[in-house]
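Database export, one record per block. Field names are fixed; values are copied verbatim from the stored entry.
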Amino acid sequence: MQKYLNKQIGQRIKELRKIKGYSQERLAEALDIATNSLSYIESGHGFMTLTTLDKMCRVLGVEPFEIFQFRRIENKEEMYGYIIKKLEFIKDNDEKLNHLYMYIKNFI
């Protein structure tokens, strides 16, 4: 069970890292860990300390439960609710809000 859970968490971290546009090297540097340590975590061969988990949440801009959230959002209502929740989370962060604005402006 532990191996399965480590693999699920590792895949989720990798997914969040890619969504946020981080390379393994850049995220590892931001977390102050070795790149091979992050690779070890993402591949499910190990887990991180609570200190690293806390840093990861702050760097990736996610709540801790989101790292353990393996279920995919499937319907429009859930997707819309998730987006609204995230907008609320970044509304006071000028840099993140600007990045999202520029992304949406160029996408739509």
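Remark 1: The mean pLDDT is 89.
Remark 2: The chain has two domains: 2-67, 76-107.
End of record.
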